UniProtKB/TrEMBL annotation:
The chain crosses the membrane at residues 26-45, 52-70, 76-94, 124-144. This is DoxX family protein. Keywords: Membrane, Transmembrane, Transmembrane helix.
Length: 195
């Protein structure tokens, strides 16, 4: 109550700065929290799971895009996976959603419409796809960005220890965590040091 989300994250960090500003919006911050709790409750009740997934979808897509935009370690992997889980719930409940969608008639190709009888065969294609997507998300997290601000100054510096860009990396970390400059400014300075 009356505490910023991820309050341990410095306001100099891009995500910390965003959350601090969001916290100062007053009842809008509370509204977002209530919407998240309402979506969670609706997702837990089988009869209202579709409504919960519809409510939660814009929330988690926003969190996912925000995580990538500011390179936030805290939800860089989990947010895209939650988006995929939400999409899975929406597709699974397509038979309930098709009445509110603006399409007149869509061929189901035998994959969207629920079968009259379910097969007991293990869904290898589904689990292979999930494993590949999970692997791709991890690869983007590990190799997608040359530089990450990380969640603290010490974590930021760890990614540069014993590398050829250790000095420039430490300056980048200082720029984000101590000087509080924008992520774009710090990234630009990081790139210009080597030029």
């Amino acid at each position: 109550m009356d505490e910023r989300f991820a309050s341990g994250l410095s306001t100099n960090h891009p995500m910390g700065s965003y959350l601090e500003a969001l916290h100062h919006t007053g009842y809008y911050y509370t509204f977002i929290g209530i919407a998240q709790v309402a979506a969670a409750i609706l997702l837990l009740i089988p009869r209202t799971v579709t409504l919960g997934a519809l409510l939660y979808f814009p929330i988690i897509v926003n969190i996912c895009i925000l995580s990538f935009a500011v390179r936030f370690d805290g939800s860089f992997v989990s947010a895209p996976l939650m988006v995929l889980a939400n999409v899975y719930i929406l597709v699974w409940n397509y038979d309930r959603l098709k009445y509110i969608l603006p399409f007149k008639k869509i061929s189901d190709y035998g994959i969207i419409e629920k079968p009259k009888k379910y097969s007991n065969k293990f869904p290898f294609l589904f689990f292979t796809t999930v494993t590949v997507v999970f692997g791709l998300i991890l690869l983007v997290f590990i190799y997608g960005h040359e530089v990450m601000p990380k969640n603290s100054l010490s974590d930021c510096k760890k990614q540069f220890i014993h590398t050829e860009r250790e000095t420039e990396g430490f300056q980048f970390c200082q720029c984000v965590h101590k000087e509080g400059k924008t992520l774009d400014t710090c990234l630009e300075e990081f790139e210009n040091i080597n030029d």
